[in-house]
Write a structure and sequence with these properties.
By secondary structure, the protein is mainly α. The protein is built from five helices and no strands. Keywords: Signal.
Length: 135
């Protein structure tokens, strides 16, 4: 009796594990089925709120704009992963739309501060992940 119980328990565990792995692989193959993590949107918006001194209304509207931008950016990267030129063109178009939305939300001085911050980030040299680090 104990053997049958443990065999049944082991079978259920294996089926559950296989089902979980299959679900994870489906999600990996189909990006866009899940939303961008709220933590990622909140972190970006909080950083902007600190830099730009946003009021509550601006924060709420900018958080939604950031959510849309990050979601669309992930979609673009997935859909155009084999065509770099198309990916860059769509990313530039998305950035232009984002800047237009920011100009509706932010004051002129905040918008200027945002552009300065973006220029600083654009000028920072990107590090090669294969150089240095642990390992």
């Amino acid at each position: 009796m104990k053997t049958a119980f443990f065999t049944l328990l082991l079978t259920c565990a294996l089926v559950g594990s296989a089902s979980a792995q299959k679900q994870q692989s489906l999600l990996a193959e189909l990006p866009g089925t899940n939303e961008i993590p709220a933590e990622r949107v909140e972190a970006l918006t909080r950083a902007m709120a600190t830099t730009l001194h946003l009021n509550e209304g601006q924060y709420m509207r900018l958080r939604e704009a950031n959510r849309i931008k990050l979601t669309r950016l992930d979609e673009i990267q997935w859909q155009t992963r084999d065509n770099v030129a198309q990916q860059q063109a769509q990313t530039l178009e998305l950035q232009a739309q984002y800047e237009t939305e920011c100009s509706r939300i932010l004051s002129p001085s905040q918008l200027m501060a945002l552009r300065e911050e973006q220029q600083k980030k654009g000028q920072q040299p990107k590090r090669d992940p294969s150089i240095g680090g642990v390992g």
